[in-house]
Fold HDOD domain-containing protein.
Amino acid sequence: MKSSIVESIKSLPPLSKTIADIDRVFADKEAGVSDLTKVIEHDPMIVANLLKTANSPLYGFGREIKNVGQAVSLFGMSMTRTIALGNALRKLLNVDMQPYGITSERFAEISSLQATMMNRWYGKIDKKKAEKLYLAAFLQETGKILIASDVIKEDEDVSFKSEIEMSNNLAQVEKSYVGVTSAEVTAEVFEHWGFDKEFVEMIRFADEPASAPDEVKEYAMALHIVKTALPINKPLSEQAINFALRKARDAGYNHEAIEDAIDDMLDIIEEEGL
């Protein structure tokens, strides 16, 4: 890994007190929706982002969500934690995704699409695993923020963007410029912030799931398939879908479940113009 990226990770500030409090409440088996709501209400930025997400067409609640309590009740504690964490991280990391040819808003949108697809797909396979994978899918592209920053500093953004636009293997382009893939960078970021080993390792191997340790191989493969279907340069293109379905078949997944999830995502994108 380039020393400049290593230094960027080491210099990352700690997560906010609100995020630490959210994690504390989430880990407390006695805590409930009202406890999580009280914590979130102290942070106006998280409140604004949570309500914006709740009223997004991705979740299709069918009515306007006007307060935190409603949002937390509808999302549930796990999904609320994921959304709060994801938005806080993007703010903390000062997102500029220009080298990838997208805006910071589009980057957040694709992260949400990946998480939503994972939830709809794996929710039919194993709900407990789906809960773990939802958070990982939502955050697995975080390393791209630091890679983009490094590419800009090295004044390589024009050539990098040109290669990303044409590539069917973003990890390969990343490796050619910074020596690592975004999955590896993301894993280092969350290791720096003290996330549990299973979470860190499933993301670390999401670009090369065949190399993953047995205990996280299934998770890494699921993340890999979702990011294959929804790469940030051409999400749910015909080619991306075909690649993802082929990888799912080769990994032994039931085709019907993942095809249904992809169809759901295509419907959402078409209806809402995402």
Q: What stands out?
A: Residues 96-274 form a domain with the Hypothetical protein af1432 fold (CATH 1.10.3210.10). The first helix runs from residue 3 to 10. The chain has a mean pLDDT of 91.
